[in-house]
Design a protein that fits this description.
The complex is a heterodimer. Chain A is of the alpha/beta class. Chain A has 2 domains: about 5-70, no CATH class; about 80-270, Vaccinia Virus protein VP39 (Rossmann fold, 3-Layer(aba) Sandwich). Chain A has 10 helices and 10 strands. Chain A is globular. Chain B is of the alpha/beta class. In chain B, about 35% of the residues lie in helices and about 20% in strands. In chain B, the strands form 2 sheets. Chain B has a 7-stranded parallel β-sheet, with helices on both faces. The interface between A and B is medium-sized, with 29 and 30 residues.
Chain lengths: ~270, ~200
């Protein structure tokens, strides 16, 4: 089994930073190593040093490299139980306002956003919401904007959706050809897609709900803390933060500024500035 | 068992399994000493949507409480952890868990290979890797890594397995230290405990 030493990894990270301007030093090491190993295998390179040389010699564009190194495995209605909880939480956000702002931070190929759009449509809230979806990877954002899902992924998506809403019909949100399902363009047009790198992002607006699910698992605790700080800053007081069901903010220094709304699905509410 | 294999200053026991392994696990967990001091990290193939039921069922027999760790949770002595559904479970330097939603490996998430490989890197020779019954070869690469880092490798006796594909794949991948029946594993862990207490 191929292994990458800490020094090698550090050197590679420095080269990536110099060449592309992306700083991976605070990414979780074990998963980052696996992503690098994956690229080595894909490009048939012997070691991390060879990859560093390739990067320096312009074998990769910034976008291509990013696309390979980031994890983009996602599903519609991943964790159906989370979406059922989301359905009960959303009405609370309208207690004092007519319109809410939702940010999907790290939206990947868009499935989480489409799930939210479906949920909002079914709750008749589409006119009362503003949605921002962002990712560090430009290529994956393009994919999210397209709304095109491979048919071989739709079986899983259907199964998830039925678990979320056994009386629903996922098909009505898609058009189909032989190989792909195309998400409702009307719904999709409500989303503002942006390229944002959470490592260096600064506050750019205030939100009522931020979703960042299974993104910070790829960050180390330092970086996760910084990102939670950003989310805290960007939430209205009494705004909600939803993370992956097996993530936690408990060891963040900002944990005390959030209430746990749902501990099974890791939904938090900011109650302190 | 070699005296040297019993008296190493181990830091963790990592167990992987698939089809048929639940009853083996329940059996082992019912017979280890209640104050067994090493963390036990279990990676079992499981249904992706079934979040509860697994640890509850295991706890019926287990002498110890079983939990599914969150990402970045610290690994504590004497605790028993099970990989959560639909996440890979890795071990990170600094003795914390690192979850991942990367692609399935051998059609599984959690993949046993990821748990064993990351644990081998962190614990090196202070690790005990145990591979149980299962229908695919997940864990074979992982056991190879455990062996390469000097850890102790044990597979379940194939003739006792519900499906012997998993231990056999590991036996083909590397020189496994011991082939044991479930009862022998129980004895080993109890003996290990006695030596560690001494």
């Amino acid at each position: 089994m191929q292994e990458i030493g800490i020094a090698e990894l550090k050197k590679l990270t420095e080269v990536i930073k110099q060449k592309f301007g992306y700083d991976f030093k605070d990414y979780a090491m074990s998963s980052f190593k696996r992503r690098v190993l994956r690229i080595l295998e894909l490009k048939k390179l012997p070691d991390a040093e060879a990859l560093a040389v390739q990067i320096e010699q312009n074998a990769f564009t910034k976008e291509d490299f990013l696309h390979e190194i980031t994890v983009n495995v996602t599903e519609l209605f991943r964790d159906p139980s989370f979406w059922r909880v989301m359905k009960t939480i959303l009405p609370n956000l309208y207690l004092n306002q007519e319109k809410i702002r939702i940010w999907h931070a790290g939206c990947s190929s868009g499935e989480e956003v489409y799930s939210m759009l479906i949920l909002l449509k079914e709750m008749d809230l589409m006119n009362k919401v503003e949605i921002i979806a962002s990712d560090i990877d430009k290529a994956i954002l393009e994919k999210a904007k397209e709304g095109k899902i491979s048919m071989r992924n739709m079986e899983l998506n259907e199964k998830n959706y039925i678990r979320y809403n056994q009386n629903g019909d996922l098909k009505k949100y898609f058009l189909y050809d032989k190989d792909h399902a195309y998400f409702d363009r009307d719904l999709l047009s409500k989303v503002s897609f942006r390229e944002i790198n959470l490592v260096e992002a600064k506050s750019f607006t205030k939100c009522d709900l931020i979703l960042c699910r299974n993104v910070m698992i790829y960050f180390n605790q330092n970086l996760q803390n910084e990102v939670i700080k950003l989310f805290h800053e960007m939430l209205f007081t009494y705004g909600y933060l939803a993370i992956g069901s097996k993530e936690s903010i408990i060891w963040s220094e900002y944990a005390s500024k959030f209430l746990v709304v749902n501990n099974e699905e890791k939904v938090y509410k900011k109650f302190k500035e | 068992m070699r005296e040297s294999d019993l008296s190493r200053p181990y830091k963790a026991v990592v167990i992987g399994g698939s089809a048929g392994s639940f009853s083996v696990l329940a059996n082992i967990m019912s017979k280890i000493p209640k104050d067994f001091n090493l963390p036990i990290i279990i990676c079992c193939h499981r249904l992706k949507h079934v979040r509860s039921g697994f640890i509850e069922a295991l706890e019926i027999k287990s002498v110890k409480k079983v939990t599914e760790p969150d990402d970045k949770e610290s690994i504590k002595k004497g605790k028993v952890y099970v990989a959560p559904a639909n996440y890979h479970l890795g071990i990170e330097l600094g003795n914390t868990f690192a979850l991942s939603t990367e692609e399935m490996i051998n059609n599984s998430r959690p993949a046993i290979d990821i748990t064993f490989e990351t644990a081998a890197y962190v614990y090196k020779e202070k690790m005990i890797g145990i591979l149980l019954t299962g229908a695919n070869k997940d864990g074979a690469h992982g056991m190879k890594a455990v062996k390469e880092y000097g850890g102790l490798t044990i597979v379940q006796e194939p003739s006792e397995c519900t499906i012997d594909t998993m231990p056999k794949a590991a036996l083909a991948a590397t020189k496994i230290d011991y082939v044991m029946k479930a009862e022998e594993m129980v004895k080993f862990l109890n003996d290990l405990h006695k030596i560690q207490q001494a």
